[in-house]
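User: I'm writing a tutorial on reading structure tokens. Could you give me a worked example: one chain, its sequence, then its tokens, then a sentence or two explaining what the tokens reveal?
Assistant: Sure. Here is the example chain.
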Amino acid sequence: MKTHIFPALKLTFLCILLFVILYPALIWSVAQLSENQGKGDLQNLGQAFTQAKYFQSRPSAVSYNGGGSGGSNKGIANPDYLKEVQARIDTFLVYNPDVQKAEIPSDLVTASGSGLDPHISVQGALVQVKRIAKIRKIEENKLIELVNQQAEKPLLGLLGTSKIHVLKLNLALDKFGEK
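And here are its predicted structure tokens:
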């Protein structure tokens, strides 16, 4: 009996040490490296900004409906998809007449896989600066500084690309205008 109980107790205490203390401590330590120290992000859904005085979000295939995320199953050669993208390009150019078609980043005219992505590329924000500077009567270089301040760097400087959370940028833009 002793030959079975003592090894079982040792294994139990070893598992408790590993899975109740060490593993959670490791996961918690890794979470501390994230932007919100593992506390999550409550504003992690994309939103539509319809006023020209705001930075525009990435298009959504689900109309920003947080109840059900999803993208489009249309391939890049699908005529309907190409029409949608062209319509988005045309609309963007109407609101941003100083921008050339080749300067529009793809994330401003294509929906994300979830349809709820709250981020755009830094270039996607910078290409909108002229319009917003003109409407809000703010110097372009000050808006560029604001965009660069709001840029979220990749995790550990390696994983991913720099991006902009559009809601946070627009909130900072409103506060910037109050100064």
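What the tokens reveal: The chain has a mean pLDDT of 85. The chain has one domain: 46-178.
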